[in-house]
Amino acid sequence: KELLSNIVREEGVLSNETLMVGDSSTDLEAAVSVGTLFYGRGAGFSNSKWPWAEDLTGLSAYIRNKNNEDI
Fold it and tell me: Which whole number is the average pLDDT over 28-55?
């Protein structure tokens, strides 16, 4: 959590426009705590409300869709 918070602050980006890609529950907890978007990698997220994939092949499409939502 602290590391992600520091990155968001030091880079001067908005947390709600930052995407955390992670493969563990602690990655998800950090994203929720800091207020970033989250994309899970691995079947451990298959029963969650968060977008996920077994690997990162769907990540580009997810980012494109998120960007189109903002237009």
Answer: 95
